[in-house]
What we know:
Layout: E1 2-4, H1 10-29, H2 31-41, H3 44-53, E2 56-61, E3 64-74, E4 77-85, H4 94-105, E5 112-118, H5 122-130, E6 134-139, E7 148-154
Amino acid sequence: xxxxxxxxDVPAICAFGAAHVGRHYEPLIGAxxxxxxxxxxxxxxxxxxxxxxxxVVVAETGGRIVxxxxxxxxxPDHVVYKLYVHPEQxxxxxxxxxxxxxxxxxxxxxxxxxxxxxxxxxxAGAFYERExxxxxxxxxxxxxxxxxxxxxxxxxxxx
Length: 159
């Protein structure tokens, strides 16, 4: 089931990030940078604030969180900043469902959605390409792996 995150989910979302995000990023961007991602973006203060703003969705199975998505703003643009699926749950359609849930939360006048990911995260890049996102720009990072790839996709609204 994919649903909007609720305040009681915050500890489980933080635990999900601590268990999976660093491990995912370590071989891509190095241990120090991976630990920084978890420390900076998966802590209770950050997650609770995002949940309170209504910009986080979760996938759960058997009462356990197995995926997390979070959107936000970069100036006027809507951006997906987090989209993670438990390694054992990949390939089961949760990524597209989390993305659809985030898109469903956007205001009716939103015409495009951005997504950003580290250049080293080629798996994410391939997923976003399959989902219709095209590279708009790449911002250099302190290393090539830490460059940030910005992708965009137009939104088709029905109704």
